[in-house]
Design brief:
The complex is a heterodimer of chains A (127) and B (107). With 127 residues, chain A is mostly beta strands. Chain A has no helices and 11 strands. Chain A has strands at 3-7, 10-12, 18-25, 33-39, 45-51, 60-62, 70-75, 80-85, 94-104, 111-117, 121-125. In chain B, strands 2-10-9-4-5-6 form a 6-stranded mixed sheet, with no helix packed on it. A 4-stranded antiparallel sheet of chain B has the order 1-3-8-7, with no helix packed on it. The chains are: A mainly beta (127), B mainly beta (107).
Chain lengths: 127, 107
């Protein structure tokens, strides 16, 4: 069974930093593509970014509005995904979910979808 | 970025009703469209990928259709556990944008 467990959320002042972690089990993490999605209170889902496996190039893509402040990384030896957030603003207050991206279909026509999710960790940016 | 627009934003329905939610992309995304269900206080769950492929274990009352820019999620006979918010998401390109969600409430 695939399990994803986020941690590292909490209360941080505006301008502060926070690093979220996502511990993964039940799948081959070295081959896994992973993503972060967030949800502000009472709002919809917002895609934060995605990191490919090292074999897939290790490329990281971000939502345009978060580039420069958010950094996604991974430690394959620890089967852990990270989200480093700096210069936090009140609008970054949200539940942050990590998810595993499954690829399905022929290599030249993959469907990508988030097939497993963690329960989320809450980040509150407030003074 | 590709914009995803869902309609309606919310709807009220009764158990047993047929429910249809639509999702429109701002450009052609072929069939690179996923649907997720999110119950209150829970993480999202995948329902459908590739516009019409049902995830293993998802009840057959859920179905998806469409290609290009217009897509539909249908629940053929609404059950009590289906009252939730539903999101479409395109996987054609990054950023992988979501629709704003459709909340299905009990009438």
């Amino acid at each position: 069974e695939v399990q994803l467990v986020e941690s590292g959320g909490g209360l941080v002042e505006p301008g502060g930093s926070l690093r979220l972690s996502c511990a993964v089990s039940g799948l081959s993490f070295t081959e896994a593509w992973m993503s972060w999605v967030r949800q502000a209170p009472g709002k919809g889902l917002e895609w934060v970014g995605r990191i490919k496996s090292k074999l897939g190039g290790g490329t990281v893509d971000y939502a345009e509005s978060l580039k420069g402040r958010f950094t996604i990384s991974r430690d394959d030896s620890k089967k852990t995904l990270f989200l480093q957030m700096i210069s936090l603003k009140s609008e970054d207050t949200a539940v942050y979910y990590c998810s595993w991206i499954r690829r399905n279909g022929p290599p030249d026509n993959y469907y990508y979808y988030m097939d497993a999710w963690g329960k989320g960790t809450t980040v509150t940016v407030s003074s | 970025d590709i914009q995803m627009t869902q309609s309606p934003s919310s709807l009220s329905a009764s158990v047993g009703d047929r429910v249809t939610i639509t999702c429109r992309a701002s450009q052609n995304i072929n069939t690179y469209l996923n649907w997720y269900q999110q119950r209150p206080g829970k993480a999202p769950d995948l329902l459908i990928y590739g516009a019409s492929s049902l995830r293993s274990g998802v009840p057959s009352r859920f179905s998806g259709s469409g290609s290009g820019t217009d897509f539909t999620l249908t629940i053929s006979s609404l059950q009590p556990e289906d009252f939730a918010t539903y999101y479409c998401q395109q996987s054609y390109t990054t950023p992988r944008t979501f629709g704003q969600g459709t909340k299905v409430e009990i009438k």
